[in-house]
Amino acid sequence: MPIVLYFSRKHENMMNGEIRSVDMGNTAMIANKIAAQLNMDAIEITPINEYPENYQETVDCAKTEKAKQARPKYKLGTFDLSKFKEIIIGYPNWCGTYPMVIASFLEDYDLSGKILYPFCTHEGSALGTSMDDLRESCLNFTIKQGLAIHGSKVAKADRAVMHWISHIG
């Protein structure tokens, strides 16, 4: 049985070219759909310093973090990762790849021998370069087929999630 880990951001989000305020981030919605299908909990990777509520300020912050290759600190629920061979990991596509808080997680945990199933939410750039970036950042695990869900379509993504889960094993 895999573990579902994710980073998501609520507040202002871009959806269909418009900024909208949301109570739950798009990636959190998909993580919860995946976890429900697998009858388990999804565990959130929560930055210690929360990103701004304002969409453009968050975009600027994400660009700065990526340029500096920052490694934001985060909180994560208590669990024993060694008990899991498969990790389903989710994130929004920021600046064409995964956010730097995900890079922090990848560096902090030994994923040697693990199988990683990435999923992301986006507003048009799908998985971006995140699959290649994952391969470059962690050479000792296997990356399988990823899932990209358009952020404005997360509420109606149940079939896409079920289809993806049926193909990941």
UniProtKB/TrEMBL annotation:
This is Flavodoxin-like domain-containing protein. InterPro entries: Flavodoxin/NO_synth, Flavoprotein-like_sf. It comes from Oceanobacillus caeni. Residues 25-165 form the Flavodoxin-like domain. It comes from the Bacteria. Pfam families: Flavodoxin_4.
